[in-house]
Description:
The chain has no helices and five strands. It is mainly beta.
Amino acid sequence: MSMVINLKTAKRCAFCKYWYDPTNSAIEPKNPRSNTWKFDDHCKKMCLKKNYEINSTAFCNKYECKIELQ
């Protein structure tokens, strides 16, 4: 299952540089020009800031986007 979001408005852990997914296996561009991306909403990875697994749909105040926005 996947969710579609706009990166400028939705700050989800799947797109955070601290969410450990070095191959970006949980994210996929849908329409990068309009900052629309898909991500696996059932995926969990380690947060490098909090040191525990977090769901891709989560968010927090330490969020920093790993995608360069246009």
